[in-house]
Amino acid sequence: MPQPLNLLKETPSQTAGPYVHIGLTPNFCDITGVYPEDLGTVMVGEATKGERITVTGRIFDGTGTPLRDGLIEIWQADASGRYPGPTDPRGGADPHFTGWGRCPADGETGVYRFETIKPGRVPWPDGRMQAPHISFWIVARGINLGLNTRLYFPEESAANAEDPLLKRLEHQARVPTLVGKREGQTITFDIHLQGPQETIFFDI
Amino acid sequence: MTEFGINTPPETGAFLPRDRNWHPPAFTPTYKTSVVRAPQKALISFDNSLSEVTGPRFGHNLIGPNDNDLIINFARPGEMAIGQRIIVHGRVLDERGRPVPGVLVEYWQANAGGRYRHKKEGYQAALDPNFGGCGRSITAEDGSYWFRTVKPGAYPWPNGVNDWRPAHIHFSVFGSGFAQRLITQMYFEGDPMLKLCPIVNTIADPAAIEALVAPLDMSNTVPMDARAYKFDIILRGRRSTPFENRREGN
Ligand SMILES: [Fe+3]
């Protein structure tokens, strides 16, 4: 037997279940007084640099029914393309922007909504610039391991066309599943878990 | 002083790929809800960019004094949640065995009778007026966390006609990068309901299921107060960067 490599195994995932709100957004489900506020509800303040946008939409299951129990987290760069906090080795991000949002789907309509700013461009590992995008992470009852996808912007067709990730996708016909629909300052990004419009999900 | 402490910059390398045979697959028909919620096309793989290796940070000042005590954090003044008092503790490590300090761990659970405080809950077990069911910690320099709670009860759920969840606590864990984001459930050693659970059994490998079962830890029991269970959480590790090719000028 050769020497062992001593790598541990990642803790296996289990579904977030129907009561994920109790843990992650307790105030949303009327468990008040434990935390002053739910995390991730406010991403921007008055001093935040950048174009204010609303990102909204729904998550649809394979029957076309919106998920009313899902929860989405997003992570994005600031207006200059830098990630907040110490994990971006370049530093220098806008101190008035969190970069991170968390939103439960509405219990009746399934709509999620983030008030944020449009992100700047972030480099790919080889130095080429990616198109502006927002990373999504989706959990819900019936989802055994959180799903990762990205939102791109429809007004960025030139940047999208040269995006190192979008460009290399074999099935270009699926790229539109990653591009939101824009009306004024509102970008609508519906996520389809199954079906002909199934959103591209990533193994990151 | 540790090499990867809270006050030193986190690692920034790309993550080791996820072993998707170790995790439950998306489509698990015995867990019925997964059938219409499982993506049917292949996931698209790509090596991490900054968007995946970076992630949100939460400061220790986020945490209130009772956030990790579910026995009192929702209770009326002077009162306590009912149930078997337990301490759950462990460390958050990465696949390389390094502690992951300064990360947010959130947990939620049913009360001692197996009832959640949630309007969609349909089980007739009684609500405990002094139990909310949520708590949170930020890991210390050595990756450790702990909280005090009551042992949750098993509960029935609409899947098969007579499916019951084993006692469990839900966990949500951040790492230093968004690609480490993980939600899972902790189970209790010796629970006969474990092998009957369709959600547990979405995991194929018995060794992976065992990784979710917390052993009773009498060495950390507080006499006359609470028994302890130990639950270590392993997040994805990063590739070590010393041997990576570097572009000219980097
Ligand atoms: Fe549960």
TrEMBL record, chain A:
InterPro entries: Intradiol_dOase_C (IPR000627), Intradiol_dOase_core (IPR015889), Intradiol_RC_Dioxygenase (IPR050770), Protocat_dOase_a (IPR012786). GO terms for molecular function: ferric iron binding; protocatechuate 3,4-dioxygenase activity. It comes from the Bacteria. Residues 55-83 form the Intradiol ring-cleavage dioxygenases domain. The keyword Oxidoreductase applies. Transmembrane segments: none annotated. Keywords: Dioxygenase, Oxidoreductase. Belongs to the intradiol ring-cleavage dioxygenase family. PANTHER family: DIOXYGENASE, PUTATIVE (AFU_ORTHOLOGUE AFUA_2G02910)-RELATED, PROTOCATECHUATE 3,4-DIOXYGENASE ALPHA CHAIN. This is Protocatechuate 3,4-dioxygenase alpha subunit. It comes from Devosia enhydra.
From TrEMBL, chain B:
Pfam families: Dioxygenase_C, PCDO_beta_N. Belongs to the intradiol ring-cleavage dioxygenase family. InterPro entries: Intradiol_dOase_C, Intradiol_dOase_core, Intradiol_RC_Dioxygenase, PCDO_beta_N, Protocat_dOase_b. It comes from the Bacteria. This is Protocatechuate 3,4-dioxygenase beta subunit. One of its GO terms (biological process) is 3,4-dihydroxybenzoate catabolic process. It comes from Devosia enhydra. Residues 1-21 are annotated as: Disordered. Keywords: Dioxygenase, Oxidoreductase. Residues 88-116 form the Intradiol ring-cleavage dioxygenases domain. One of its GO terms (molecular function) is ferric iron binding.
